[in-house]
């Protein structure tokens, strides 16, 4: 059985469906701080499978240990954690508590219960701002400045040390770039929140048609002046998790892989893809650069391609179409997609 922490979140729920469709027995843990209980019904509706669910917090050692004792768990895929850079700067202690303490609890209790396979959700933010793109796993890292990225950096260091001291324990660290997209059914996708990320901002501008989309920066040293990022479809990202889990089952140690598309797309290019699929213009206006934003970054994914036999299959058009299909299904009154 595989335990999925944060299994009702955007990534965790897609992972749960993928595993259930492979007839893998799973157990989901979530405290609903970044998700909702309705996701459980969506997972059941899409997969047509049953699974175990327990509401609880990964910082609660008694709760996690009781779960390990009563379930035949042999691997953990750890998605539970807070994930907003701007939010982390406002409340760093909560990010360190949730992300670092929660992960330490899990790996210590895994050791106690002789569970030795662990997949961790890290982030491309651990690369900081000191390296020109593309970024690969061999780059020497310095501790990042924002609390969210720092929490991921610290956990990576903890896992490397833990594996050295516990020879049977095997860890896979996955550095995400920018996951977007949705399940092809349209029933499951990322929740739309206001914030710094481009895709939710575009969707909010579509929902509130009288609002302009803010594009931060048009004077970067990039071909069109807007910032460039690496976007990956959520289904490709989850496929990388399952291949990483298979890899550590036969390879000892602590392993790190980038999961991105290996390509960079500018803000204006992403807007153009949305416009092409929607067959309409998106109203936007340029504003000044935001503090901390990098001009451009994208991944080198050779290591994942070679070691995991993994590569992304979904194009940027696939990603945007699935996002819009999810919006269309969840807000049918908008009639967002034209036939």
Question: Mind explaining what this structure looks like?
Answer:
With 339 residues, the protein is of the alpha/beta class. The chain folds into two domains: 2-180 and 231-259, Rossmann fold (3-Layer(aba) Sandwich), CATH 3.40.50; 198-229 and 262-334, UDP-galactose 4-epimerase, domain 1 (Alpha-Beta Complex). 41% of the residues lie in helices and 17% in strands. The protein has eleven helices and 13 strands. It has a seven-stranded parallel β-sheet with strand order 3-2-1-4-5-6-11, sandwiched between helices. A two-stranded parallel sheet has the order 7-10. It has a two-stranded parallel ribbon with strand order 8-13. Helix 6 links the parallel strand 5 and strand 6 (170-176). It starts with a strand and ends in a 9-residue tail after the last helix. The relative contact order is 0.13. The model has no long low-confidence stretch (mean pLDDT 94).
Order of helices and strands: EHEHEHEHHEHEEHEEEHEEHEHH
Annotation, overall tally of beta strands? 13
What's the architecture of the largest domain, going by CATH?
3-Layer(aba) Sandwich
The span between the termini is: 42 Å
Integer-rounded radius of gyration: 20 Å
Largest sheet: 7 strands, parallel
Low-confidence stretches: none
Using the alpha-carbon principal axes, give the shape: globular
CATH topology of the largest domain: Rossmann fold
